[in-house]
Amino acid sequence: MSFKCPGNEISTVKGNNKIYILGIETSCDETSAAVLLNGSELLSHIITSQIGIHQKYGGVVPEIASREHSLHWQTVVQQALDQADLTYSDLTAIAVTYGPGLVGSLLVGVSAAKAIAYALQIPLLGINHLEGHIYANFLHTPDLEFPLLALLVSGGHTHLILFRGHGDFQVLGRTRDDAAGEALDKIARVLGLGYPGGPQIQLKAREGEAAAFDFPRAMLEPGSLDFSFSGVKSSVLNTLNSARMKGQELNVADLAASFQQAIVDVLVRKTKLALNQTGVKTLLLAGGVAANESLRAALARELAEMPDQVRLAVPPPLFCTDNGAMIAAAGYYRYLAGDFAPWTLNAVPGLSLA
pLDDT by residue (tens digit) across 81-119? Predict the structure, then answer.
């Protein structure tokens, strides 16, 4: 099997039939690389986080993020190869996130992947970041059978996705305003809990009472699978402002627990509605917010009570956040399909899954 790039015919056949995919992820503030063998054996996984750098600003500063990627990507890739006990010449293909994300950060990863693939004359695989999050499930639950329903919840996206087959996605619902993770980050900042907000809300919520405040759960029109979290965010802000004007001091742990529960309730209810509408029997949880323990527990509990048994697949927390392993996993299936990117691949910060 071979594919054409402008002016080049590149062989994709490896003599030992071992497919080594190097995955590179630089969409936001983690520089990550991983090597995956034959789509199932993770040989290495390296992540360099920038959380400590961005904490003082209360969020990711795009210019700083791209600079840090530029400084660290070569070391991260080399560490991934060393951990896998491989050299560049052993690689079969390079998979890289090209969107969505911060354009400067994406450009670092895309440029690096193109350079490596071109120098080695091996295939380049362009991966949608959202697709990567979904494929993180295949790293730990390889026996998944289509069709699948994916609940993708992150700092920038909240989607319900029908996954009919490799590369075949249909977005059934998405947020109309704030993503769930974005709302968590914003309220964490207002409550003085720091960055990143989602994990800080979760930690504080453990000390609080989820029923202390009755925040709204927006379900939108009957049957709609879309989300809206701006209302619950505004309700928390109004509660805080009202208390300040009255000179009252509110329990931050109770606020965090009640707000988190409102987010979780909407996610769970919409997911159950999507399962009932589609008849799908396997749910994939994906994205950074998929690491939230309350969301995991609520989904497991609610799915267990459904009349028809629904299987729940959830990656370990490490593979819910941005990582190169999920990009390599998605890349493996693109490689098998012969879906290779041209040398003109560019960053697409607003890339959609459709």
Answer: 999 999 999 999 999 999 999 999 999 999 999 999 999
Q: Using the Cα atoms of residue 315, residue 319, residue 320 and residue 325 in order, give the sign of their dihedral.
A: negative
H helices then E strands: how many in the chain?
Answer: 10, 12
Contact between 202 and 296 (Cβ < 8 Å):
no
Mark whether 162 and 304 lie in a shared domain: yes
Q: Which residues contact 171 (CB under 8 A, 6 or more apart)?
A: 159, 160, 161, 352, 353, 354
End-to-end CA distance of the chain: 28
CATH number at residue 262: 3.30.420.40
Same structural domain, 157 and 261: yes
Q: What range does the domain containing 308 cover?
A: 146-315
Could you report the per-residue pLDDT of 264-303, keeping only the tens digit for each? 999 999 999 999 999 999 999 999 999 999 999 999 999 9
Whether residues 36 and 131 share a domain: the answer is: yes
Contact 288, 154 (CB under 8 A): yes
Are 218 and 276 found together in one domain? yes
So what's the pLDDT on residue 3? 36
Which amino acid, 3? F
Note whether 102 and 169 are same-domain residues.
Answer: no
Residue indicated by tokens 């010449």 = 89
Find the DSSP H helices in the chain: 51-54, 62-84, 103-120, 129-140, 180-190, 197-205, 230-245, 252-278, 293-304, 324-337
Q: Please report the pLDDT score of residue 236 as a whole number.
A: 97
CA distances from 147 to 237, 277, 280 (A): 40, 13, 6
Q: How many domains does the chain have?
A: 2
Say yes or no: 79 and 13 in one domain: yes
Going by C-alpha positions, the residue among 179, 255, 243 that lies closest to residue 212 is: 255
